[in-house]
Design goal:
With 249 residues, the protein is α/β, with parallel strands linked by helices. It is 47% helix and 19% strand. The radius of gyration is 17 Å and the shape is globular.
Length: 249
């Protein structure tokens, strides 16, 4: 099944990636009900979130912000890794947050609705020992400004993990992403949510996002130190990464 013509039409209607990012919260509202099931069918999805959570390397009772928490799958990964942590989750989508609040095991999490571009304005009262931002930095309109603001609410010596797709610069990874999204993600997304809009955006946004080297460069430019990238396994190896960085003590 080919989505090439549909994508071209969608691109013209959207006005491109930048315009799409401004409407991303509404898109997530529409798919919130089927979102967890879709991700449950993705081999390694929850395991890899847990890896990124553990790679923060925090104490069990740390103060942690889950930025772009969605339906709370990343929050659950943080809770499993740090059972005594003080957790705050922020997302722009009311529909996704409603699902997160229903999840067992996440009692006591402070849920905030707000823009990832300015978590402090959404009520994220740092400083946080660690911040996990899963599948979020790619969706903000100004990644550099976002990283500066994230750094401002991170404790000195605190750790940031960007759990994110990055396939630029790797022909193999780009091919895998094209095949998986065209053959599985978009059709399956339609079956579960009755829309392909968000999943077409996902495909394009990943293809147009930074390379691993460029993400690391953004982190260093924002003033972070000890920048490194850790891989995943399975088909996500070379596609999804843990980008880790520390705020200067």
């Amino acid at each position: 099944m080919s989505f090439r013509s549909e994508e071209i039409v969608a691109w013209a209607v959207d006005g491109g990636i930048a315009s799409r990012k401004r409407r991303i919260a509404a898109d997530f509202d529409r798919v919130a009900r089927g979102y967890d099931l879709l991700n449950a069918l993705n081999p390694g999805y929850s395991k890899h979130l847990r890896w990124s959570a553990e790679r923060l390397g925090l104490e069990a009772d740390a103060r942690i912000l889950d930025l772009c928490c969605g339906t709370g799958l990343s929050t659950a990964a943080l809770r499993a890794a740090y059972p005594e942590a003080e957790l705050t989750g922020i997302d722009a989508s009311a529909g996704m947050l409603a699902r997160a609040r229903e999840k067992p095991g996440l009692e006591g999490v402070v849920w905030l609705q707000g823009d990832a571009m300015d978590p402090g304005a959404a009520g994220a009262a740092g400083p946080y020992d660690g911040i996990l931002m899963a599948y979020g930095i790619r969706n903000v309109p100004d990644p550099d400004l976002c990283l500066q603001r994230v750094g401002a609410i991170l404790a000195d010596g605190g750790v940031l993990c960007l759990h994110e797709y990055s396939v630029a610069g790797s022909p193999r990874s780009r091919l895998i992403w094209r095949v998986v999204t065209a053959g599985i993600v978009i059709p399956l997304g339609f079956l579960l949510t009755r829309t392909t809009s968000l999943f077409r955006y996902l495909r394009r946004s990943v293809l147009e996002f930074d390379s691993v080297t460029e993400v690391e460069g953004r982190l260093r430019q924002a003033g972070f130190i000890d920048v490194r990238t850790e891989p995943m396994d399975g088909w996500q190896r070379g596609v999804v990464h843990s980008f880790l960085a520390r705020k200067h003590p």
